[in-house]
Write a structure and sequence with these properties.
The protein is α+β, with helices and mostly antiparallel strands and 455 residues long. The protein has helices spanning 92-95, 155-164, 179-189, 221-227, 229-242, 251-266, 288-297, 311-327, 346-349, 365-373, 395-407, 409-429, 434-452, and strands spanning 9-12, 15-17, 21-28, 40-47, 61-66, 72-77, 82-89, 122-128, 136-144, 169-172, 196-198, 200-204, 211-215, 270-273, 279-280, 283-284, 302-307, 334-337, 354-360, 377-381, 390-392. Strand 10 (169-172), helix 3 and strand 11 form a beta-alpha-beta unit.
Length: 455
């Protein structure tokens, strides 16, 4: 995933606003990439969507920049929302450097394509329209299990592993259990604000087989049903009697889902249509007629397009089902979740099989929820062993998130990993001496994000 020269250079800001005059700084990351002081470098700016290398179209801006105080700086106004490639041409004098630790002098051949001194580094930027100014990206998961249901670890251990993998928000959604998500919120209050914990639960429809996620609700739907099952059953029966259901849709099951979604919204939660094509004993957990009926009902807020437990086979069906419904005029915002039951597995520590990226100005749940409902979210799938990822959602978001996945997250996750390890240690020991260390690491990630985004 990592760009070829990402480890050698930093571009700040890497995200800018269309039409605003911006000073761009290119800084080497280490002596191996140091600029020749006083050397003249050529920076070419290639827009991704309005030029081509196959035709002689004069859309490339060029700057001659002198290296001063170890960096290159130039000022440019980016005219359109899109990605941009910065092609950095190295002066001849910088290609031939004597190495005092090696005799004869180290002289890489300029014709050698593997030598960073012999070819032009490609660096990357992105310009966004003013409506996205001030927004940053937040990585999250809203389908997670702990030892409160069928998960294998504590609430604190799960959140620590999430942060180590670069996550910014999480909703614990244990089966039949709301309290574990409240524990996650309280646990994060003990720590510096590095991750937003959100209330949640996985609801099992009364006398039914399908799971529904409630995210951000102020009360438990599971508990509400258990408190007075006769009243709830009567309400479900009334819904079943008042509606006509399509062929293949069981009235009792559909009515139970309607009752659950109504309760989720009554408690202020976000209702998620969850893993409809998950295989249980090689049979899809929900009939296709029911999936189509619920998707088109307009009652659910969000569609879980990707689920880490479902795997590539089922996720392909969930993805293509979404785009087929969209073609027919039915749509809703999308998210991706790991459905994690054990975050210590290798594919979770690197990337989880599925997660969500959200674009918002703040990281509190209200801002994240509003961004998701405004379709500023994408679902990302990235399976163990894959060298690349796939992003799903609205085209504008997919383009931008692809840039951030390649240029922002590799560096951001380096900083987050140490935070997660300290959180893990705190979960084990409750040693308050770890908290100032975590606060210091938080300042590093905050500074990195502020420099990366140009506002």
């Amino acid at each position: 995933m990592e760009q070829k020269f990402l480890t050698d250079y930093r571009v700040t800001p890497a995200v800018v606003v269309v039409g605003e005059c911006t000073t761009v700084t290119i800084r080497p990351r280490g002596e191996q990439a140091a600029f020749l002081e006083g050397g003249e470098y050529t920076v070419e700016i290639w827009p991704h969507e309005t030029t081509t290398t196959r035709l002689n179209i004069p859309t490339v801006d060029k700057y001659t920049v002198t290296a001063q105080h170890g960096v290159l700086q130039f000022t440019h106004t980016f005219p359109r929302e899109q990605g941009y490639t910065l092609k950095l041409k190295v002066p001849e004098a910088a290609k031939w450097r004597e190495n005092p630790h090696y005799n004869p002098p180290f002289r890489p051949r300029p014709t050698n394509p593997k030598s960073p001194y012999a070819c032009a580094p490609y660096l990357f930027m992105y310009a966004v329209d003013p409506d996205w100014k001030g927004m940053t990206v937040h990585k999250g998961d809203m389908h997670l299990h702990t030892n409160y249901s069928d998960g294998n670890e504590s609430v604190g251990g799960l959140l620590a592993n999430l942060r180590a993998a670069g996550y910014d928000f999480a909703a614990v959604t244990d089966h039949y259990c709301y309290d574990s998500s409240l524990k996650a919120i309280e646990w994060m209050k003990e720590l510096p604000d590095v991750l937003t914990a959100v209330a949640g639960e996985e609801i099992h429809c009364p006398k039914d087989y399908v799971h529904i996620l409630s995210i951000g609700g102020t009360a438990s739907v599971n508990t509400c049903y258990d408190a007075d099952p006769e009243k709830a059953d009567a309400a479900i029966a009334a819904i079943a009697a008042s509606r006509t259901f399509p062929e293949g849709v069981d009235p009792q099951n559909a009515a139970a889902r309607h009752w659950v979604v109504r309760k989720i919204k009554e408690f202020g939660g976000m209702a998620v249509l969850t893993h409809p094509f998950w295989l249980w004993e090689r049979v899809h957990f929900m009939p296709l007629a029911m999936t189509e009926y619920l998707f088109r009902s307009g009652e659910y807020d969000v569609y879980e397009m990707l689920n880490g437990i479902s795997g590539p086979e089922c996720n392909q069906l969930e993805t293509m089902f979404y785009y087929d419904q969209q073609r027919q005029g039915y749509t809703m915002p999308v998210i991706g979740n790991s459905d994690c039951h054990c975050s210590d597995r290798p594919d979770f520590r690197k990337p989880a099989p599925a997660f969500t990226l959200v674009l918002s100005k703040e990281r509190d749940w209200e801002s994240l929820r509003d961004a998701i409902l405004a379709r500023r979210s994408v679902a990302v799938e990235w399976y163990e062993g894959d060298t690349n990822f796939r992003i799903h959602g609205d085209f504008r978001m997919v383009k931008y998130m692809n840039f951030l996945m390649r240029n922002y997250y590799p560096l951001y996750m380096e900083l987050c990993h140490a935070q997660g390890m300290l959180m893990k240690q705190y979960d084990d020991t409750r040693d308050i001496a770890l908290l100032p260390l975590l606060e210091g690491l938080k300042k590093q990630t905050d500074t990195f994000t502020e420099e990366f985004f140009g506002w």
